[in-house]
Amino acid sequence: MTQTVASSARRSAKTGPGNDEPSPDTFTRPHPMFWRFIFILSILYELGLIFLLFQDYNFIKSMIYSVYPDLRDFKIDTEKEYGVNCSDITVERIWNSLDVFAWGHFVGWATKAVLVRHYGICWTISITWEITEMAFAHLLPNFIECWWDAYVLDVLVCNGLGIYCGMWICRKLDMRKYNWERYKDVQSTTGTLQRAVLQFAPANWTRTRWLEPKCSYVRIISVTLLVIFWQITELNTFFLKHIFEVPPAHQLSVMRLALISFIVAPSIRQYYSRVTDTRIKTLGSQCKVFGAIMFTELLICIKFGRDLFAQTQIPQIIMWLAIQFILSIFCVIVCVVYSNTCESKKIKEK
Questions:
Q1: Is residue 39 in a domain?
Q2: Domain limits at 121?
Q3: Which of 76, 226, 255, 272 is the most exposed place for a label (fewest CB within 10 A)?
Q4: pTM of the model
């Protein structure tokens, strides 16, 4: 794993972070150096994870306490009950459920939609995540939710609106063509401010088509793996917080989520390029490093959560994996059929 990270770093130094060969998909906004910095941070984070993987639990906890002494007093309430009185549905209770985490769902899924840019894949990930929560609820009690909270508020309202807004942003920016002139070429004050804001947007927006009407089985498998790996990445977040007893809103959790979000952005783009462009023969460096991060975090969870994972209901996890693959493949087939139908209609109209 360390060798993979090192080789990715060497290739990145030659061709730019996240591209094993020159490609127009290189991120340039707000500046190429920003994404080089993110790539360096991702390597340092992976090396830090490898170091922690070979330490003991008490040593890691002492490291956390030395930086964040306030966490000494935080303990996970294992006696707290979740998802109780689900039949008691009132407007007041539903309104109280729309807390900061509901806004987190909305913003998070708007961001994911901007990254993935595909309704079918986004909805598949959203639905399969609720199934993931059900499958792992015996290990993480906070995954237990009432049916109306999980499938109405989360999937339909928060996630659904987030996906719609994210795709709306993609459509708007795909239809508009920005002129990325230099600051000195902008004459008015308004134009200068607008140019400054647009500097933090992508230099160009590529229409993303994960599933062509005649896509190969390899691409179908690749999209299915994307859904599975997304679930693992999300699970790592919750297991790390539970095993090392860190509150969701704590600075440590927020910083990790922010770093992972920045790492995922170019990783998704590189994965898409590898899946859809036959000229690209290998994954980008950033995507490889992110894969190493995901699996290293998973190993850390398994090693230090042995007592927790000892309670795992193996048949339930096997069923979860089977459902993940079946739903993912079903989604891919439906999307391909739908895309094929749309292409046929366009041909007939011509």
A1: yes
A2: 32-77+90-176+200-349
A3: 255
A4: 0.76
